[in-house]
Every structure is written in structure tokens, then in C-alpha cells.
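To close the chapter, one final illustration. This time we ask the reader to focus less on the individual chains and more on the assembly as a whole: which components sit near each other, and how the overall shape emerges from the parts.
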Amino acid sequence: MLIRYLTQIGRYFLMWREIFKKPTKWSVMKGLILKEIDDLIIDSLGIVAFISFFVGGVVAIQTALNLTNPLIPKYLIGFATRQSVILEFAPTFISIVMAGKMGSFITSSIGTMRVTEQIDALEVMGVNSLNYLVFPKLIALLLYPFVIGISMFLGILGGWIAAVYGGFGSSDEFIGGIQQEFIPFHIAYAFIKTFVFALILATIPSFHGYYMKGGALEVGKASTVSFVWTSVTIILMNYILTQLLLAS
Amino acid sequence: MIEVKDVKKSFNGVEVLKGISTVFETGKTNLIIGQSGSGKTVLLKTLLGIHKPDQGVVEYDRRRYWEMTEDEKRELRTEIGMVFQGSALFDSMTVEQNVMFPLRMFTHKSRSEMEDRVNFVLKRVNLIDAHNKMPSEISGGMQKRVAIARAIVNNPQYLFCDEPNSGLDPNTSILIDNLIKEITEEYNITTVINTHDMNSVMEIGENIIFLKNGILEWKGTKETIFKAENQAVIDFVYSSNLFKRVREAMLKG
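The assembled structure is written out below.
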């Protein structure tokens, strides 16, 4: 069991090396990157915007409902919303959601190509299939921090609307809370995490799709396994990066 | 010409190819036949470099595949066309994009030159109105023809076909067989076809090898296969009722 896991991990890192070997012609790669940006980034904006807006609102309401002591200032609603959204919700929670949405899409599309021998066709033609399939996803996901930036903005906007229009505090109090004890490094921390999660989101689902064996049923299983491992890796890396960047 | 010498290949301790040696000749349709599990696909994939043999040599016109550098292998692969069993067309691309793919990847032709070449090969496989259709919108026979067009678009020296007739009706199968044979002769390429379809054997079997349990049991042509004395070949050839009756008629004179 342990040997099997270690073999898989070794294979995953060897895959990284292969991704950058024998690059595909730029004229072809350009089109592939644009297609991946459309499939992975643009197509994710709707669901990210929806979740971020409403979860931001819920964070604000729950914070407000827990501030029962009249001595605690109302600006804490804005402060708590900002901290929750920027530090954890946008980078980590959205990445877990994307492990389901984006990750399943990547695993199933590459897995289907494996099952239908399209990957063999690429290899027989002399194309480095890992470079052709995974490299454009990696490049496209360099724009993932942009998605998380939108998520941060909409999460805080949702919190502001919920707080102000729900009658939990004034707009000035909420905005004051957002500005309270602002540490710019928290933004850097969030985007460093996001960048690492982007690499995970591009490669682990690709790995599970590329190396899968079997037929249509196994494509479904590979998508599920891919989601589990992508989520586990994101959560582990979240812990490690938080320890390294904030606690030390 | 492709030559294999004493090729052996095992998976998880099970020997699938047990020392195959043969020559696939240029300008001829070379058939690998045998029952399911005989090692046909493994041999084909070993020829293609998808599987590395545990022992033995694969030579493409005296060029030893497994002694080549990565660049040489990549160069050689541009000389290879492959028609997969399930066609393996890229389902996110139109028919035209599928056929144009090898040209875009490996040549520096202009867009109009590529379009001319794609039009030429699609016409050659009798597909003239399918340029903008997706693979899912065309029949299995048409998909096979697109796969053949994609395989020959870059003027390959070697053409491999894995079960080109599987899933096709008898008439379409004959069309595909004849198309492969015509292309082989027209471009003087080395064609290797993996099949268990006796109709294909009768139509285009110019150089046939018969595999059983990973061993090359018999070699011959479509003319000599009916006179083969090897019991495994007899069992394979006369496995269908039609051929059994033909044999009975032949024996009765």
C-alpha cells in the first residue's frame, strides 16, 4: 500500500519533468492556452461569483448575530468578513470548490482521451502528449489568482450588502472594519497560497486522467479519486503555507 | 521495410510475445492475424514504440528504434501514420482540424497549403462534404476514413492500422480494406494491419503472419493461407460456418 502511494507520488513528480520536455509548436500552443483559459478560468467565474457573494453575506450575518455584547463595536462585522474572506474563504474554500468543478473536468477530459486512444494517437505522431495536454492548463491557471481576486471582492461586497441592508450595522462601520488593522502581507499570503493551489489544480487532476486505465466507468472513478487527492493536497499545503508564512 | 528480430515482451511476469522475428515489406499490405489474446496488439504497439520490448530489435529501414535518440525517434514518428481501432479522432476538433493536425504540428506550411493538402486527402478517401463536421456527427465508416486521411496527410513511410474494420458493416469494411491497399501501392509505403477479419485477409493479405499465444506460428499470403497445414491456422481460418462450408466444398473437389 505504502509502496503504491510512494510510486504514485514519484510518478507525479516525473510527470512534472515530462510536461516541460519537447514543447509543442508555439503557433499550436497559443490556441490551446486560449482554449484552456476559456474552459478553466472564464467558465468558472459565474460559480465563483455566486458562491463568494453569498458566503460573504453569510459570514457577515453570522458575525453580527454573535456580537451580542453591546460593548463590542459593530465594525468587527467588516473586520471579521475581510479576514475570513481574504485569508481562508477565497483562496482555500474556492479552491476546494474548483477541485470539484475544474478538477473533474480536467480528469474526465484527459481520461476520456486516454480511453479513446487519443493520447496514444498523439504519442504515435511524435507529440509530447503531457506537454500538449497539461502545459496549457498550467499556463491558463496562472490567471487563477485573478479569479480569487474577484472572489475576495465579491465576498466582501456580499458581506457589506448583508450587513447594511440586513440592518446589522451602518455602511461606515462595515467599511471602517474592513480598513481596521489591515496587514498588506495577508494579501500576499493569500495570493502565494492561490498560486500553489493553481499548480495543484492543474496537475493532480491531469495526473489522474493521464495515467488512468480502463473504460468509461474508470473515468468516473478517476474523477472522484482526483477530487479527493486534489482537496487533500490543497488542505495540507494550506496548513504548511500558513505555518511557514504566518506563524514563523 | 520494418524488421523485428527475436522480440519478447512480458507484462507482470506473463510473456505475451515469445521471440517474434519477421519482416514487414514495403509497398505491401502486411497483416498480423490471430485470435484475441494472441499478442497482435502488443506486437503492433511494440512496433510503434509504445511498448519497449524486453528483448529483441525493431528496425525501420535498418534504423534500430530503441537505439535512437529522442530527437531521432521524434523524427521517425513523423514518418508514421496510424489508424486506431476506435479511430481515435480528437473529439474537440472538426474533421478538417483532425486531418490538418499533423501538418500544423510538424510542418511549416501556410494555411492555404495545409487546406489544399487536407482537401486532397479527404477527396482521396471519398469524404468531400465533411470538413466542418465533428467526429460525433459522422458514421463509424466515415470516422475510419477520416482517421486514414489523418494518417496519410503527412506522406508517411509507414502506415499502421489496428483492426481497421471493427464495428463496420461488410461493404464498408471492403471499401476501407481496398482504400488501405490502394494507398499502400500508390505511395509505396510499409503498411502493417492488425486484424482478425478473414474478409480482410482475403481482400488484402499480401504478407500475413499468424500469431498464437505470442508465437509466430505461420507466415504466408492470402493465396497460401487456405492450404496451410498448421492446425492453429486451420482452426482460425475455418472458424466461421461460411469458411467451414467452403473448406468442405474444396475437400470434396
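The first helix of chain A runs from residue 2 to 19. The mean pLDDT of chain A is 94. With these observations in hand, you are ready for the problems at the end of the chapter.
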